[in-house]
Design goal:
elongated; 13 helices; about 30% helix; protease; hydrolase; alpha+beta
Length: about 475
């Protein structure tokens, strides 16, 4: 009996020593766990806030957006603005994205993003954390709020802004030369648009006289693409959605000024004529492609009874995306060498009319929707700009000759997926691991973070796709 009690005492002492060692090395067991190497922090679910958590993880995987925020918030680093930093959306968003991209020193495995909701509420956005929300809608709330914050800043430097006047780029000689000119220029970070900002072109051509109306430009922060009706036996791809987006459509009963002018020239003076109404062909193109490209796949459909339904079909996408074919090209006279290059391009690249396919852009144009899930019409299956990029994880530059290297090459950075139906569900994110070499991906669901393969990423039913522009072989 005495020997047994001594054995139990030895075991108890060893257990106590082991517990003490664990406490010294890793802290109390009830405390927050330390983040594992190679992973990023998760985000605490504050009550149906997976829409916000998934979007923040996607934005934090875009280095260009973080760099722009760093330049944008440089204005608040002066002494007089430090007291207002907590009220600025850009400052709060930057702190969260830097922590999620492991640029901030933190070993916590779960972060709290309630500060972002508070700043949005201060900007008059009433976002409840206990109601179903949409990640795409929140994306537009963030981008529009950042634009409002930029527009609230003064366009010229104040006369008593000593900090700006003491900047190295504004010397005493420059100030003396401006006695009869304008004030010192505003810092460049207040002028620049955020990297998701792009422009669409709308082109209208009369089918009767082929007169082309002036090109219209509209801004966009994300491309919201409808999913065309599936063709049996053919997989649906992202290029099909993009071709459907820029496909031409007929607009009837439009007044044509040129047809009216031609009609008036054939009538005697003094006689009034009616405006000539004809059919126009309208086509969209991308006039300015952004540095960061957000693509939203509309998954809203309507039944015959008028009830909303979610479309669950898989849309194939690739790690690399070439956008040259969707770029607007400025019309103008071409030299003989350019005409020969275009002829060779037409012979080597298949193309059809009505926007189902097109010719890649040869020159770069100078820079100048909020539903959750929308059904679209059918689109033909033509050769796509990313058809060379089907092998995951690689980009075969040899598929593009030296003279045909893509100008607008994008690399996949994050994918937001919605699980569930129209009335309830859950958002998760696939994103690149920051600082990892190659294609190291992560799967994140609020607080849960694990490693994922590129094959798993490309097999996901995407709702939001985040691409970032990279340099092709030509650059």
């Amino acid at each position: 009996r005495h020997r047994a009690m001594r054995s139990w005492g030895v075991l108890g002492g060893a257990a106590a020593a082991l517990a003490a060692g664990i406490y010294v090395l890793w802290g109390p067991i009830t405390g927050r766990k330390r983040r594992r190497r190679g992973l990023v922090p998760g985000l605490l679910n504050l009550g149906n806030t997976c829409f916000m958590n998934s979007l923040l993880q996607g934005l934090s995987s875009c280095p260009s957006f973080i760099r722009w925020l760093e330049e944008f918030t440089a204005q608040y680093r002066t002494e007089q603005d430090k007291s207002q930093q907590h009220q600025q959306l850009s400052v709060t968003l930057l702190q969260l994205l830097r922590a999620l991209s492991c640029q901030e020193v933190t070993e916590d495995d779960v972060l709290d993003a309630s500060c972002l909701l508070e700043v949005l509420r201060m900007n008059r956005w009433q976002i409840s954390s206990f109601e179903e929300q949409d990640a795409h809608e929140l994306f537009h709330v963030l981008t529009s709020s950042l634009e409002d914050e930029r527009d609230r800043q003064p366009r010229v430097t104040h006369l008593f802004d000593v900090h700006s006047l003491e900047q190295p780029e504004i010397t005493q000689k420059q100030i003396s030369c401006r006695t009869r000119g304008s004030l010192p220029p505003v810092s460049s970070h207040w002028k620049s648009q955020h990297p998701f900002h792009g422009r669409l072109t709308s082109n209208m051509v009369c089918k009767h006289c082929e007169h082309q109306s002036p090109v219209r430009f509209d801004t966009f922060d994300s491309l919201s693409l409808s999913i065309p009706a599936a063709v049996w036996g053919r997989p649906m791809t992202l290029d099909h959605c993009l071709h459907h987006f820029i496909s031409s459509e007929s607009v009837k009963d439009v007044v044509c000024d040129n047809c009216t002018k031609i009609q008036a020239e054939g009538i005697l003076n003094g006689q009034s004529i009616e405006n000539q109404r004809t059919t126009f062909v309208k086509q969209l193109k991308l006039g300015k492609l952004p540095q960061c490209l957000c693509i939203h796949l509309q998954r809203l459909s309507w039944s015959n009874q008028g009830t909303p339904l979610k479309r669950h079909e898989h849309v194939q996408f690739n790690e690399f995306l070439v956008m040259d074919i969707y770029k607007y090209r400025v019309p103008g006279p071409k030299s003989s060498q350019e005409q020969l290059s275009q002829k060779n391009s037409e012979e080597t690249t298949p193309g059809t009319k009505d926007g189902r396919a097109g010719k890649p852009s040869d020159a770069e144009q100078p820079a100048g929707t909020k539903p959750l899930f929308m059904n679209g019409a059918s689109s033909s299956s033509s050769s796509s700009s990313s058809s060379f990029l089907m092998s995951p994880g690689t980009f075969p530059l040899a598929a593009f000759p030296e003279c045909r290297a893509p100008l607008y090459l994008y690399r996949l950075m994050a994918v937001v997926v919605h699980h569930g139906d129209m009335h309830s569900g859950h958002f998760v994110t696939f994103r690149r691991a920051p600082g990892a070499r190659g294609s190291q991906w992560l799967w994140i669901s609020d607080e849960s973070v694990r490693r994922a393969s590129l094959h798993e990423v490309l097999a996901a039913s995407a709702y939001l796709l985040f691409y970032e522009r990279v340099h092709g072989r030509a650059q």
